[in-house]
Amino acid sequence: MSSTNIALLGAIAGFTIYLGLPIGRLRTPTPRLKAGLNAVAIGILLFLVWDVLTHAWEPIDEGLSKHHWGPVVSGGAVLVAGLGIGLVGLVYYDGWIARRRQAAAQRPAGPGAAAVTELAPAVRSQAGSLALMIATGIGLHNFAEGLAIGNSAAQGELSLAVLLIIGFGLHNATEGFGIVAPLAAEGERPSWATLLQLGLIGGGPTFLGTLVGQHLVNDTLSIAFLGLAAGSILYVVIELLAVARKTGLKNLTTSCIFLGLILGFATDAVVTAAGA
């Protein structure tokens, strides 16, 4: 299979994320539906945190078992740095966005308003900010997945590459739902342009990772992106849990988180079977 065809399949795997995004345009969802959507997204994202950290730890664990201390130290440092930047960095980013939004509200005709107006439509509300953060975290994760696809193709393991593409494609379809869940939970109906933007942020990196992975096989790079992804997704999970607690629908929330976890494992089954 040519490099072009592998890249094309990587693009298809990434853009299946659009299958789940239209859920964000639901009209006037009921409170129970809002809570359920939010909780299912939490379950999916919790699975992703586990999945991402597992893949990031694998090369470090292999180095430990073989007593190769150099890769262990460098890989561990990269993972800690990526996790910290992804988690703590988003706290500062969220605060910066909130200050810009507050400044715009106080001075609607001033520079602050113009700055906020220039921000992407997806970040003009709290739910929109969460959706953008989820898309960013998933995008980092998907870049690492694209690296796996490209690496497999570069090493001549085409059957594995194709299976990875199928598995990641199924996985991305559920991730699209996770991105728009905060918008649906708040009753905000994003425009098609916003959905297009969120899909590009979340799914596009799979294609980019596939291109890079065909020419660069590097565990450290993969660990860096996986660490960033895990930190950012974990931050979003914390935010969504706060939203879930406010609903007071504990039984429904718990059941839907469980459903989200099951969906995450189910869509990852093909990837696991392929040996990723």
UniProtKB/TrEMBL annotation:
* Predominant subcellular localization, coarse grouping: membrane
Provide the membrane topology annotation.
Multi-pass membrane protein
What does the record give under GO molecular function?
zinc ion transmembrane transporter activity
The UniProt entry's coiled-coil ranges are: none
This protein's GO cellular component annotations are:
membrane
Q: From which domain of life does this come?
A: Bacteria
Q: Which UniProt keywords apply?
A: Membrane, Transmembrane, Transmembrane helix
InterPro entries in the cross-refs = ZIP
Q: Where in the cell is it found?
A: Membrane
Can you tell me where the transmembrane regions are?
6-23, 35-53, 73-93, 195-217, 223-244, 256-275
Name used for this protein in its record: Zinc permease
* Source organism per UniProt: Streptomyces gilvosporeus
